[in-house]
Amino acid sequence: MLQFTVPGMTCGGCANAVRKALAAVPGVTAIQADPPNRRLAVDGDVGADLIVRTLADAGYDATPIA
């Protein structure tokens, strides 16, 4: 599972927008958004770079957590 910080994901509406954007990415099988902590976990056969680019296209900065 890949984990990210997403500073702009501050509410449920933001989390829904993030989920919607990532649900369209082939290979993503699970998305867990935690707006209060601005954390995101994504599972599936997908790379961190694609997740970061997809979120940037949706208006959110994301940084992988090592």
Automatic annotation (TrEMBL):
Q: Which GO terms describe its molecular function?
A: metal ion binding
**Leader sequence segment:** none
Could you tell me which InterPro entries the record lists for this protein?
HMA_dom, HMA_dom_sf
Q: Which PROSITE patterns match?
A: HMA_2
**SUPFAM superfamilies xref list:** HMA, heavy metal-associated domain
Gene3D superfamilies recorded: 3.30.70.100
The HMA domain sits at 1-63
Q: Write the protein's name.
A: Copper chaperone
